[in-house]
């Protein structure tokens, strides 16, 4: 955090598509099957927004410290589309100050060799491959279309291709999971020795299928607390330390989400966005640009359109909004000079 300067910023890139919708999810994302016709135009417009954002950053003399491509599931699109986006980033920004480049390859069923090679060739330094649980009955209960074995295969493939910084996510409190089952998932994760592990708590979000399908009776708070407590002691024993934490509403047991890492593998973007260390410039549907005034707690937000069809259809209006980044910094520079 101390290395960030008043002209530092991070870049967030949104890929709001998934192979299927998990029952606990409340994010604005579309399944690939339903949104396939939107994706080519979306990628084209996203690259244009990245290029425009790069022009703004160069004009203002801003230094890019971290890039985070999330979603959705970025690896839900094909390798050629991913490469187009990576090329747009490379050609639009000065990457000489870059300290971290993360891509969420979150769903193991979307991880393929050609996509991982594209990600590696782009200079990405950190990826996430997220099983959420390693119990197949729980995966089926939450609508995931992969097995634990598919996760192991994806993780092994990423190692073979040369990724030395991999994060994995687990969720405590999932339907049909047990305390013993959650600890078996931890055992499986420890056998792979990822550089970081994020432990989330199931949140009963109103827009999720769990809630919409009247599964709110799943109130397993005490067991969830035991799961989280177990993860804390066991991750410490394995040499991980907590580096960021946040709470959501309606979590089982009132517990939190915590990022754990081996020393030196902390996810910098996660720290920067939670701490609001510096400006985040966001590209893509659902992205929220957060302009931070250095030395203060003042944050100004610019919202992109949430849905891909809005993003595609009202792109010119959205780009015009982004011009506020220029006026924000020009006003800031004037105040600094005075």
SSE diagram, text form:
Elements: E1 8-15, E2 17-18, E3 30-31, H1 32-35, H2 39-60, E4 63-71, H3 79-92, E5 100-104, H4 113-121, E6 126-128, H5 136-141, H6 148-161, E7 166-172, H7 179-192, E8 196-201, H8 209-212, H9 221-237, E9 241-246, E10 257-261, H10 268-275, E11 279-283, E12 288-292, E13 299-303, H11 308-313, H12 315-322, H13 324-337
Parallel strand pairs: 1-4, 1-11, 2-3, 4-5, 5-6, 6-7, 7-8
Antiparallel strand pairs: 8-10, 9-10, 12-13
Quick description:
By secondary structure, this protein is of the alpha/beta class. The chain has 2 domains: 1-125 and 266-338, no CATH class; 130-164 and 166-264, 2-Layer Sandwich (Transcription Regulator spoIIAA), CATH 3.30.750.200.
Q: How would you describe this protein?
A:
There is one protein chain. The protein is an alpha/beta fold and 338 residues long. It has 13 helices and 13 strands. The protein has helices at 32-35, 39-60, 79-92, 113-121, 136-141, 148-161, 179-192, 209-212, 221-237, 268-275, 308-313, 315-322, 324-337, and strands at residues 8-15, 17-18, 30-31, 63-71, 100-104, 126-128, 166-172, 196-201, 241-246, 257-261, 279-283, 288-292, 299-303. A nine-stranded mixed beta sheet has the order 9-10-8-7-6-5-4-1-11, with helices on both faces. Helix 3 (79-92) links the parallel strand 4 (63-71) and strand 5 (100-104). The model has no long low-confidence stretch (mean pLDDT 91).
